[in-house]
């Protein structure tokens, strides 16, 4: 003796109401599993340290003060030395035609 489908669906509705779950007789992918999970935003925000002021921020706040950034000067000097040896970054292409002409292999 088979139980009618409508009776099974009614039973599923009552079961979902009792256990506070979603009634989904068509077994569609609704994403309830993801939506029930706790939010990760606050935990991730607490994990990473707060951003501290950088030298660039201080220079922007006080443009009249003369400040000397040794790390930035060292970086620029290193780039200049590499360019003088021919090891610097290539120049950017200004137009699309320049990039297609140079990029093609024959």
UniProtKB/TrEMBL annotation:
Residues 84-94 have a biased composition (Basic residues). It is found in: Mitochondrion. Its main location: mitochondrion. Residues 81-106 are annotated as: Disordered. Keywords: Mitochondrion, Ribonucleoprotein, Ribosomal protein. GO terms for cellular component: mitochondrion; ribonucleoprotein complex; ribosome. It holds the Pfam family MRP-S33. Belongs to the mitochondrion-specific ribosomal protein mS33 family. This is Small ribosomal subunit protein mS33.
